[in-house]
Amino acid sequence: MTSTTSTTSIARPTLHRTLNVWQVSIAGIGVILGAGIYALIGPAAAHAGNALWLAFVISGVAAGLTAFSYARLGSMRPRNSPEFQYTALAFGPRVGFVAGWLMLAADLLAAATVALGFGGYLAHLAGTPVVLGALALLVVVGLVMLAGIGQSVAVAVALTIVEAAGLLFIAVIGVPAWLEPDLLEAPRGFPGVLSAASLIFFAYLGFDELGNFAEEMRDPEQNLGRALVIAMVGSTAIYVLVALSAVALVPWAELAGSSAPLALVAGRLLGPRADAALSAVALAATANTVLLLLVASSRSVYGMAAAGVLPSALARVGCRATPWIATGAVLAVTAGLLFAGSLAEVAAMTDGAVLASFALVNASLAWLACRGRASRGRRRALDLALPAAAVIMCGALLLHVGVASLVAVGALTATGLLATRWSSPTS
User: Fold this and answer.
1) Residue 10: is its pLDDT beyond 50?
2) CATH number of 131's domain
3) Rounded CA gap, 63 and 205, in Å?
C-alpha cells in the first residue's frame, strides 16, 4: 500500500482584470479634467494673456509626446507603478525607484492640494471649515476605494460626466465671442506663454496614471495605448475650447485676478446663479481628481512594494481585490499633507516632480530603442525621435517652474536615492 501526501495552499487575493478600454479612457479624461483647469486658468492667463489657448496646446504636445512613451513602454511591461517599471527596464531598479518616487510624491501633493480645493468650494457653498471639508472628502474617497476598482471607476465615470459637462458648457457659451479679442496677444511674449504652459501642465496630470491600471485592464498591451490616445486627444480639445471662450468672454487681466475664473466667465453671461452652479460642478471635478489620483497612487505603491523597493506589506491585496494597506497609506499621507500650501505653490512643485519623472521615462524609451531592445525599422526611428523631443520639451518647461520647485525636486531626488540604499529592488 502506498500513501501519497499532498499539500494545498490558499491562493492569495490578486488584482482582477475587469476594465475595458473605454472605462480606462474615461477615467483618464476624468483625472486630467480636474482641479487644474478650474483653478489654474486664472494664474496662467496672467502669464499668457489672450494666448492662453496656445499655452494649453504646448502643454498638450509635451504631454502627448510623453504619452507615446508610456504607451510604447506599457506594451513592453504592463505593470502597475509605470514610472518605476518603465525606467527600471532601461536603467535598472534604483533609477526606476527615483522616477516612481518623484511621481508618487507629486500625486500625493496634488491630491492634498485638490482636496483643499474641494474644501474651499464646499466652504463657499455651505460655510464649512476648509480642512474639515477636505478630510470628509478623504473619508468618502477611502470608502469608495476600498469597495473595489469597479466601484471606484464607476463613481469616477459619473463625476467625469459632470465635470466635462461644466467645461463644455463654458466652451459653448463663448463660441460667438471667439473673434472679438486678439487671440495672440501675450503681455509677456513667448516666454510668458511658456511660463503659463509650465504652470498648467498640472492640468494634464492624469494620463500617466493610466499605467497604474495595467494589471486590472483587459489586454493592456493593446488597450493601454488606445486609452492614452483617447484621453489625451479628448482632454486637449476640451482645454483649448475652454481657454478660447474664457479669454473671449472675460479680459485676461480679470481672469488673472479671480479666485474662481470659470465661475466668473459663466456669471458674465448668466448672472449670480452661475456662480453656485459652477461651484457645484467644481466640487465634482475636485472630488473626481482626488479619487483617481489616490486610486492610481495606491496602485503605484502596490507595484513598487511587489518589486521590493517598498515594504512588502504594502503589496497585500484584500478580499475586495484592492491593495488595502497601500490604500490606507496613501490616504494617511494625503491627510497629513493638507497643510502643504496654496494650490498654485504646490502645483508648481508638483509640475517640477512630474516633469523630472517624465524626462526619465522618455529617456528610457529612447535608450531602449537606441540599444535595439524596443523595436526595429521605422518604429525604432519613432521610438528614438519622439521621446527625445519629449525630453527637450519637459526640460524646457522644467526651467520655468521656479527656483523653489527645482529645489524641491532636488530634495525629493536625493531622498529617493538615499532610500535605495536600504532596499533591495528587483527589476
Assistant:
1) no
2) 1.20.1740.10
3) 8
- Distance of alpha carbon 358 from alpha carbon 194, whole angstroms: 18
Using a 10 angstrom Cβ sphere, with 0-12 exposed, 13-18 middle and 19 or more buried, the burial of residue 120 is buried
Placement of cell 479628448 in the chain: 234
Round to whole Å and give the CA distance between 60 and 204.
7
- The pLDDT assigned to 85 comes to 82
d(CA 360, CA 351): 14
The dihedrals phi and psi of 98, each to the nearest 5 degrees, come to: -60, -45
**Contact by Cβ (8 Å): 78, 86:** no
Q: Note the pLDDT tens digit of each residue in 52-65.
A: 999 999 988 888 88
Cα(140)–Cα(396) distance, integer angstroms: 39
Closest CA to 259 of 194, 347, 344, 187: 344
Residues across the chain = 427
Asked if residues 27 and 230 have their Cβ atoms less than 8 Å apart, the reply is: no
Q: Which residue carries 497604474 as its cell?
A: 212
Cell 479619487 locates to: 291
Q: Is 145 inside any structural domain?
A: yes
What band does 8 get if pLDDT is binned at 50, 70 and 90? very low
Whether residue 82 lies inside any domain: the answer is yes
Hey, which residues does 217 pair with through a beta bridge?
19
Q: Determine contact, residues 260/107, Cβ cutoff 8 Å.
A: no
Separation between Cα atoms, residue 71 and residue 224, nearest integer Å: 6
Whether 11 maps to a domain, the answer reads no
Domain count, the chain: 1
Q: For residue 7, is pLDDT > 50?
A: no
Q: Which domain holds residue 168?
A: 21-421
The mean predicted confidence, pLDDT, of the chain is 81
In this prediction, residue 4 carries a pLDDT of 45
pTM for this prediction? 0.71
298: Cβ contacts below 8 Å, ≥ 6 apart: 145, 322, 323, 326, 327, 329, 330
